[in-house]
Each structure stands twice: as structure tokens, then as C-alpha cells.
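stuck on this:

***
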Amino acid sequence: MSKPPPAPIQSIPVYQAGDVTVVNGANLGDPMSFAAELDLDDTYELRRDATPHLLSLQTDGKDGFIVAEDSEIGVHGATLYLDSCLTLMSGNGVTTEVLILVEVDDEGDVEAVYALPLAPLTPRLGYALVGISKDDARTKFAEVACVSFTRGTHITMASGAQCRIEELQVGDAVLTRDDGPQKIRWIGHATVRAVGDFAPIRIKAGALHNENDLLVSPDHRLFIYQRSDALGAGRKEVLVRARHLLNGDTVVREDGGFVDYFQLLFDEHQIIYAEGIAAETMLVDTRTSPALPPDLSQQMAQSLASHDIREHSRFEVSEKLLKHPDMAKLLKRASTR
């Protein structure tokens, strides 16, 4: 029996705790920390020279995460826990949510604390801590982790018809790459801020042989068949995250305002066709399961136990093979030779 594919790696832009410190309040001078050490109404500032680092993580198969090998920060293999969701308010009343992740050693002692802002923080601007929630953290992180299509995206149905994603209904049959027609089990929808590293990626018409623009979440994995192995991946079938295709021309980040995101869930993880591009659907694991309604999560607990055990999950390309000034152009050329 072949080994199951490795858990997908997700890279998130985080600040180290010392980059965000209390400038007024009970914990004056202290870095941002986990919930048990925080006090409401403390005012925080992001250091002027603070730089976010990509923290790469994988699920540990339970309720936590581990630091992945290619992470820019943290100790490879160390355990990470999602501690809390903080709500910060600037002087003009705008709120920003920040997720707190804690890295621990083998003895369970805290090694590092990381802050993941869900919207950009402005250096040297005061932010008052107005909310601390341990209950919302996993749901908020799930919204970040879920791969999502945007309103208006055309999905190829089992009949071959093209249907806008917002018009789909549970039970509709969609054409999948691996299993033919499959019925939708659940459709998720959320309106989120399209800012910074979480802004959607627009793949313009023609960039990957698509007739219309495709707008997806940044970590959405696209399936591409190379007629020649231009990436040196050792196979012709590859999964590439949308953010790795950015080139400032045919693939761009749509930063600003809000975006309507939709998630499609099937009984198994699937590759479907969106604007003619083969793209993955929602993968259920410990990162994303909190996004499901509780009743659905319970109903599908057993059938989704092996949701990520799919042959196509082995096709993801490591980031080190994607260092090219125009990856979209390279893959388009490789898929047409």
C-alpha cells in the first residue's frame, strides 16, 4: 500500500511577538502574547522596521499544527497551537483582527508567539485591544485556510453547461477531473476584506488558456498538465498555488475593498473546472473543518476522515521549484508543447 500524500503546506505572513508591543496600558513595554497574558484596553504599536515572515505549517493530524520544513521562521517540526483571535481598534474606530499562534517545544514550554493580522497593520499607529476570543480563533483561521472561488466564477457542470458559482445549489452535479459527475455536498459563502496577503489573485483571460478571468483565493491550488516537465518536478501533472503565479501582468493581486468568497465541498476532495482552469475544491482537515456548520461536520466526520487521501494531492510542487520571473507564462508554454 502506498503512503498517503503529505498534509498540504500553508504559508501565512506573521510578525514575531516583539514586533507588536504595548505602548500604553497595564503591560507597558511587553510584546503581544497569548490570551492568558493580555489585558483589554492596552494600546499596541507595530514597530516601524517590522517585517512579516512566512510561517509554513502543516496539520499534525489532531488539533494542532507543526512548522513545515520550508518555513522562514520557527523550528522545523515544532508544534504550533492556535491560541486566540484578538480585535484591535485604531483611533479612527477601524477594527482589525489578529490571530495568535504559539510555538512550543517538546516539553510544552512556549518557544515563540506569532501574530497573524487579517488586515494590514500600520506601523507606529496605536491599536487598542478591545476583544480577546479563544472560541473564534479556529473559525477565523479556517476562513483563511479554505480555498475559495469568487462571485461570478463559471463552474463546468456535469452536463457541460457553465454556471455561475453563486447560482449553484447543494445536490447539483459538477464535472470533476477524477470521478466524473459529482454532487455538491455543501456551499460556503463569506464576504471578507480583500487586503494585503489575503487579497484574491486574478488570472487574466488567456494566462492559462482560460477564456475569462479567474479570481480565486491566494492559496488556491490549480491543476496543470505539462506536456513537457518545465518545472523539473519529475512528473507532468502538477498543483500550483495561485499566489506563486503572480507576475504583475497576466496574474495580479486584487487588493482593496471586499470580496465574496464561495467554497464548494464534495464527499471527496475534487479537481473541478472554473473558467476552464482545473482547480481544487475545499479540502477538509483540522485547518478548515471549523468553517463547516456543526451538524454537517458531525454527519460527515467518518466519510471525511480520508478527505485528503487523494492521488492528486501528491502533485503539489514545492516552492523552491517555482522561482521563475513568470511562472504563468512558463506553465502555459509547457502545457501547449
About this structure: The mean pLDDT is 88. The helical segments are 137-145, 294-299, 327-336. The radius of gyration is 20 Å. The first strand starts at residue 10 and ends at 16.
